[in-house]
Design goal:
With 263 residues, the protein is α/β, with parallel strands linked by helices. The chain has helices at residues 14-26, 39-51, 71-83, 103-119, 142-150, 166-174, 190-198, 225-236, 240-255; strands at 2-7, 30-35, 55-59, 87-96, 124-129, 157-159, 178-181, 204-206, 214-215, 218-219. Strand 2, helix 2 (39-51) and strand 3 form a beta-alpha-beta unit.
């Protein structure tokens, strides 16, 4: 089966959602973790995961949304977690140098959601966009410093859409974190491919980040996950069926659910 560990099914058009769901039901054994970026997308994802067997929800709050954060957001997410057993993570959450709020504000919001995740023993899915012009990136990224304050081990931390070289990969792997590679591997950027090659199989997850990650100028869908599997299978020299089995095992460890149970 194909598993997309991070997509935005809730952001697809209604037609794209229906086409994806129909294809999954008929010919494409699959499981998607639908990540949200704010309250509205979280409510949408919550409803979708209750309707579709192959959809699981991750409640997120993107750093771009930091300016609209308030205590009621946490209260809303607390209620959703209590109501829906298919909420399997908190994320995407993290830091982004392009956000219009200061890093200090972003960090406070980030920490609030880490605390939420820890209260409910849920993994966190991390968004981390570094400033390419900053010398600080040569040191430990701030997001790792913050996570280190809460987690002695990164066994329940997933770094989504990993886009950096081995220097940033290594401290994540050292703490047993999960690294999720997206459709960006198709672009053959050398530092991403090096990280993919060096990432141990037991720390590996695969995703589309659809529809935001485009393919040849078109919006992607979770069904494009097969392209990620094919590329990763080739890059790591592993049979695709064995890769699928490894990802199933990794999903079970990272998110504490059996991805085969609703397919």
């Amino acid at each position: 089966m194909f598993i997309d560990s991070h997509c935005h099914f809730n952001s697809l058009s209604k037609i794209a959602r229906e086409e994806t769901a129909s294809f999954c039901k008929d010919t494409f054994l699959c499981c998607f973790i639908d990540s949200s970026i704010d309250v509205n997308s979280s409510l949408a994802s919550n409803a979708l995961s209750q309707y579709y067997g192959f959809i699981y929800t991750s409640l997120g709050f993107h750093p771009f949304s930091a300016g609209i954060f308030c205590g009621e957001v946490i209260e809303t997410y607390e209620a959703l977690i209590k109501e829906n057993k298919k909420i399997v993570a908190i994320g995407e959450i993290g830091l982004d140098y392009k956000a219009d709020k200061s890093q200090e504000v972003q960090e406070e919001v980030f920490k609030a959601f880490i605390r939420l995740a820890k209260r409910h023993n849920l993994p966190v899915i991390i968004h981390n966009r570094l400033d390419p012009a900053s010398d600080n990136n040569k040191k430990q990224p701030r997001v790792l410093e913050i996570l280190g304050q809460f987690y002695p081990s990164f066994e329940k931390v997933i770094f989504h859409c990993f886009s950096y070289g081995p220097d940033i990969l290594k401290p994540i792997i050292k703490k047993s974190g999960f690294v999720s590679f997206s459709l960006n591997v198709l672009r053959n950027k050398s530092e991403i491919i090096r990280s993919l090659e060096e990432c141990p199989l037991e720390n590996l997850l695969l995703e589309t980040d659809s529809p935001y990650m485009k393919i040849k100028e078109r919006n992607s869908t979770p069904l494009d996950i097969d392209k990620v599997y094919a590329k990763v299978s080739q890059a790591k020299g592993i049979n695709e069926d064995k890769l699928k089995e490894q990802i199933v095992a990794n999903i079970h460890r990272a998110f504490n659910f059996n991805p085969r149970s609703n397919t």
